[in-house]
UniProtKB/TrEMBL annotation:
Keywords: RNA-binding, tRNA-binding. The keyword RNA-binding applies. Pfam families: tRNA_bind. InterPro entries: NA-bd_OB-fold, tRNA-bd_dom, Tyrosine-tRNA_ligase_regulator. It comes from Escherichia coli. Coiled coil: none annotated. One of its GO terms (molecular function) is tRNA binding. It comes from the Bacteria. Residues 1-86 form the TRNA-binding domain. This is Putative tRNA-binding protein.
Length: 86
């Protein structure tokens, strides 16, 4: 779901549960590109409020210094949802 201020509110399957995150990826990804995408997620964060929405995790990205490009980190091979990053 896109918010008026160019943020996505995303539900992320992390294995044993689903977490919500608020991300500023609107300039880089369409909603269709994000749906069902396997990504790397940081889950050991405190909940935070962004524009009134709860964010419980963070999608990890690589971004250029000037912010012109941001790419979600994805696993090289398919892995089950919720596996640990070591």
């Amino acid at each position: 779901m896109k918010t008026p201020d160019k943020l996505y509110i995303v539900q992320v399957d992390v294995g044993e549960k689903t977490l919500q995150t608020v991300t500023s990826l609107v300039p880089y990804y369409s909603e269709e590109e994000l749906m069902g995408k396997t990504v790397v997620v940081l889950c050991n964060l405190q909940k935070a409020k962004m524009r009134g929405e709860t964010s419980e995790c963070m999608l990890l990205c690589a971004e250029t210094d000037d912010g012109s490009e941001s790419v979600l980190l994805t696993p090289e091979r398919m892995m089950p949802a919720g596996v640990r990053i070591v």
